[in-house]
């Protein structure tokens, strides 16, 4: 009888444990969800047609689990949501969850054609709300030293809506979201470069966000090629080299970044690498259609290099997350 009583756990205790676990869930994990979902979509563009849906659905399922955990955390601990949105770094990466949901919606479009557009549109609305919240908090408490590359996420990240817009039938909305995103990039980039060059160094805790420097140009390129079949060659000539240059810069930065102690901010490494490969895959397709065969060979080789590196980075960050949040606690309790 005593054994039964000892083993019995009241329901409220279990709920408290779940709430405590949720409270410790890093919101930055949304960046990892975005990287995983986007990686599946990137591979789906280059693999055999038979494997396209399984790969997209698998990556979307994994990303969905991470998104749901973060969503539960922000609902159950709403005070944390308000606190994190007001934070100059964490607040800038919260919209990654909405971006992840857009990618998931596109990945599920063929199997859930009625649900996917509603999910996609809901994610866009959430992203806009988070963008407004981020801007409002930064206006109240603005300091140039607070700027880190993750500040690109709220205003420029909305271009993910363009990348994932195929079949959603919101062409007008997507066009203006793209214009807004690329306009914000043009405004924020000079300010960001000034801050990085002339102001205090980014602290080590936020340094992983430097990897996000690789994302905006490639995201803009991928978004542009997703919404038009007749892009302006001049804009391609600006975005493509800039995207490759920024990605190369982050590759060099990894020499330092990958030596940093693990933190949830490691998630910042994932999506920028994947979107670089995605943009080059889309660019290669456009070049081939327009008979720029020799240039298409160059971009195709670059795309494969970036895709392989992106796969390695996403796999590595996923392993570090699993080890830190699942394996290490199990090992510590078994001692």
From TrEMBL:
GO terms under cellular component: plasma membrane
MF term (GO), any: monoatomic cation efflux transmembrane transporter activity
Subcellular location field: Membrane
Keywords from the named record: Membrane, Transmembrane, Transmembrane helix
One Pfam short name: SLAC1
Gene3D superfamilies: Voltage-dependent anion channel
Primary localization class, coarse: membrane
Matches recorded under InterPro entries: SLAC1/Mae1/Ssu1/TehA, Tellurite_res_ion_channel, Voltage-dep_anion_channel_sf
Membrane topology: Multi-pass membrane protein
Lineage: superkingdom: Bacteria
Transmembrane segments: 24-45, 57-76, 88-109, 115-136, 148-167, 173-194, 206-227, 233-254, 266-289, 301-323
Protein name per the record: TDT family transporter
Lineage summary: Bacteria, Pseudomonadati, Pseudomonadota, Gammaproteobacteria, Oceanospirillales
